[in-house]
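User: quick one
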Amino acid sequence: MTTPALSKRSRNAVWIRQFLLQGCWNYEGMQNVGFAYAILPALRDFYANRPEEAMKAVKRHLEFFNTQPAMGALILGAAVRLEERVAAGEADPRAIGTFKVGLMGSLGAIGDSFFWGALRPMASVAGALLALLHPLLGIAAMLLLYNGVHLSVRRRGFAAGMEGQEAVVGWLKRAALNVRTDDRKLMAAILAGAYAGVFTGRLFVQGQSAAYALASLLLAAAAVHLFVVLFRKAVSPSEILSFLLFVGVLILWG
Amino acid sequence: MVWRFLLAILLGGVCYLDRTAACQLMLHRPLVVATLMGAVFGNMAAGTQVGVVLELIYLARLPVGASIPPDDTGAAVFGGSAAAVASSSIGLDAGSFTALLLLSVIVAEVGKAADRAVRKVNVRIARITAESVDRGDIQAVEHGLLAGITLFLVSGMVLSLAFSMAGVAVSKELLPQFGPASRGNFAILLPALPLLGAASVYSCSRTERTAAVFFLTMAAVFGGTVLFRWSA
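Assistant: Done. Structure below.
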């Protein structure tokens, strides 16, 4: 069976539509509508003049799907390539669901750790520090630091996915996201230390006593440690802020 | 003032879209949003001051799976607009600044509840989409997504209006009720807030290597800052 090839226009449309993966995020299928929307231009090409099969293909992609949005590009690219093979009769349609389910959990975990746990904190704290010099400098630094990597992962991941399943594995090895996660966590910790040091120096120290300054530093370090212990015990920042607000109200009444 | 609120609705809507439904380019981060709101309500620098602190505080809560973190975008809309208005009326003293940051936690929780409600409505949209596809209408996927995005956008715009109005009201009506001395007492809590932000980043980035690095950097930069202040 000959399948119409994926047109450049449709490929570009799929690439653009991946940015709306979470456009209809819901508690049942999560990113399912977004994924079906993103892959739809490719399905229209592959199943041109075969409406029944096009409908079945769309239904396949309305199954539950959830992963880290940037890593979704990789799965999307590979799913397009698999759909092409299914449309040509070279692969079993069930392979697509198996592939997506197999990859979304592991890539989601890698992506959450890299993007939310390392890259975003690093970019945020760098931006916050530079914003002390000038607001726009801080914002520009944060957006560039984050999106330089974010958009590159989306572009390269999608391209690797479009080359097929083997290329996906090869790209994941080359990208070495676990190593990059550790590096960015280290950088985030350094910058967060600098942030804490700057604010402690500005807010705690009033006079010119070295002993007072040292006590301030130790108190601030103890406070950070206490907050981290509370986070580890599943106390949220909102709960800590609410407690501080309560203390503030008591101070006002007193 | 009306055009300021209109601008806040537009910019807030775009930032809220970036938060979940589209792109995730970090336009929804408090540093960006609070600075924008500060600029809209007349003092960009005041908005940035709030944004710098809010930016890090909620980082410890990751948007993983079905968990929804507190709405730090909404907190920044509230804090940025309130800080800008306060700076031009009573002045953004340390006590007012602390009060605004702490009050933003209420806004963040309200925004989180609204986000949850939108996602519940999206379940219905997704079901209708699937039913339409079953009937052979594959274009329903595009309509479903458009409906979902519209819902996120409208909710973001409504929240932006509500939170910026709340920010202006707090700065114009609530804070002036307290004298400078009372507000000054409130400022005793201020040093805890940036430290909470730093702890939030540190807890995200905690590995075997990072603990020593974090505290050594903190001590070194603290020493440098103090020496600089003493010599100035």
